[in-house]
């Protein structure tokens, strides 16, 4: 059994009562899949990358929590503790910890290793494309937000506010993600997903009679 498999099994135990549909085992599996795709062109240690992918959200705090920026550090610390107990190679603990620490957008920590760069890209890809749209609306609903401002969905005459309107999140944050990608493969994947996301928004505006915006 690989360290990725062992990490997945342990997280499944720790998340036995997890109810956040945007941060579930499916999310972790997709991040690990994206990591493997990116690593085909960006060599990295799978025994670091796999566990980092599965433990990166081990401590998952709500997006509106005042302690949100500490979640990646708490996840990294928990990963080290859990993997140490599982007999994980001590020499790999520091790069594993850094990869998890640096993946977070809110933590704003520059990734300094191949594994950290790949994990950051893989996790950010989850905010884009079809899966990004699904997660965007789900998270907004969890926080009490609406789908969009029916009168001004593109915020032409009001401030953007993605806490109130899910659709605003595309302009508030997601359009900038492509430029933050650390790898060439990740950047290409992000650009394609953002294009799809913007085409979805165009279709949505047409369906609600706002296509002239």
TrEMBL record:
<dbReference type="GO" id="GO:0016787">
    <property type="term" value="F:hydrolase activity"/>
</dbReference>
<protein>
    <submittedName>
        <fullName>Hydrolase</fullName>
    </submittedName>
</protein>
<keyword id="KW-0378">Hydrolase</keyword>
<feature type="domain" description="HD/PDEase">
    <location>
        <begin position="20"/>
        <end position="137"/>
    </location>
</feature>
<dbReference type="Pfam" id="PF01966">
    <property type="entry name" value="HD"/>
</dbReference>
<dbReference type="InterPro" id="IPR003607">
    <property type="entry name" value="HD/PDEase_dom"/>
</dbReference>
<dbReference type="InterPro" id="IPR006674">
    <property type="entry name" value="HD_domain"/>
</dbReference>
């Amino acid at each position: 059994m690989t360290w990725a498999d062992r990490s997945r099994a342990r997280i499944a135990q720790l998340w036995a009562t997890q109810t956040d549909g945007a941060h579930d085992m499916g999310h972790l599996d997709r991040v690990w899949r994206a990591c493997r795709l990116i690593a085909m062109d960006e060599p990295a240690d799978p025994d670091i990358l796999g566990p980092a992918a599965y433990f990166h959200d081990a401590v998952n705090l709500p997006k509106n929590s005042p302690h949100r920026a500490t979640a990646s550090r708490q996840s990294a610390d928990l990963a080290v503790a859990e993997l140490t107990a599982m007999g994980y190679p001590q020499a790999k603990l520091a790069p594993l910890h850094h990869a998890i620490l640096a993946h977070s957008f809110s933590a704003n920590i520059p990734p300094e290793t191949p594994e950290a760069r790949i994990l950051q890209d893989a996790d950010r890809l989850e905010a884009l494309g079809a899966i990004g749209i699904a997660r965007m609306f789900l998270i907004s609903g969890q926080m009490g937000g609406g789908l969009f401002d029916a009168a001004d969905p593109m915020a032409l005459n009001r401030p953007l506010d993605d806490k109130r309107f899910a659709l605003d999140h595309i302009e508030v944050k997601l359009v900038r993600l492509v430029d933050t990608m650390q790898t060439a493969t990740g950047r290409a994947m992000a650009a394609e997903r953002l294009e799809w996301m913007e085409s979805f928004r165009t279709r949505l505006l047409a369906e609600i009679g706002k296509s002239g915006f």
